[in-house]
Amino acid sequence: MRRKWKLLCILKTALILATQLGIIFVGCFFLISAAKKAYMEGRLFFGIEFIGRKNSRGELDLIPIEQAPIIKPIESGSLLKNRDEESTEGDKQAANKKQTLLNKFLWVWMISLFGMVFLAPGSTSIGLILMTISSITFAPLLGVMMLEMDENDGLRATLLTCLITVCAALVGMYSGIDFSFMRGFLFFGLCALLLVGFGRIFFGMTSAMIRFKAICGAVLFSLFLVYDFNRLKQLSDIGINDWSTALNMAISIYLDILNLLLEIMQAMGDG
């Protein structure tokens, strides 16, 4: 019975995480599926026209029209579609509406994300509501990011993130090691990553530098996952199992997972 009580915090945290990540990934892949369906039917998708090509693995890769190569290979049986040289006024209006909608999603996501981080410790219900809003609005943003790269690589990045998360959970919770010693290193690593990010804004970076920074970021957030899962296990072992603690731990792990995914996507993309 005592062991069951100890597991409550872990189970509550897992329930919150599974719900929120489910919202993101289901919404994201629904958007990608809808874009592929629109492409196959020759329709615009939120004012965007796609051309399709085979990637190096022979998979269909949708390319937004503005990212399409100027010279398109013409092959028998290829999945490429021709596009008109000029957009109609209606297409432009649809594209503008799409961009406006994405901007609204971005602002709502940012506000709810910061609200979740700062308000969740004081109110579990408000924190959970803001976390849900953050997940709902991040799903289409993630879908668009995956479409702008190769969405097949986006899927692989998601699977790799899931694998790393499971491995980090096993190491953090069942290795028997107290990873509290990593706290200082992780803090300074995060500060360094933020400084490099600001430096990129003002001074620019080459694609190789961006990819190296993304790989370092992926390693850092993998270690954050180990550290946070270890903290969750420690809290569970001392019998802390309230919803407030579970939500705060879920938020920490949730942010680790999303940051890890974004870093992996950047490392796999073209910078």
Question: What can you see in these coordinates?
Answer:
This protein has 271 residues and is mainly alpha-helical. The protein has one domain (2-268). It has helices spanning 2-40, 89-119, 124-148, 151-174, 183-203, 207-237, 243-268; strands at 50-54, 60-64. A two-stranded antiparallel ribbon has the order 1-2. Helix 1 (2-40) runs antiparallel to helix 6 (207-237). The termini are far apart. The model is unreliable at 67-87 (pLDDT under 50).
The number of domains is 1
Oligomeric state of the chains?
A: single chain
- Flag low-confidence runs: 67-87
Radius of gyration: 21 Å
Largest sheet: 2 strands, antiparallel
Query: What is the count of helical runs?
Result: 7
Helix content percent band: over 70%
Task: Set down the secondary structure blueprint.
Blueprint: H1 2-40, E1 50-54, E2 60-64, H2 89-119, H3 124-148, H4 151-174, H5 183-203, H6 207-237, H7 243-268
Concise synopsis of the structure shown:
This protein has 271 residues and is mostly helical. The chain has helices at 2-40, 89-119, 124-148, 151-174, 183-203, 207-237, 243-268, and strands spanning 50-54, 60-64.
Entry keywords:
single chain, 271 residues, mainly alpha, 2 strands, 4% strand
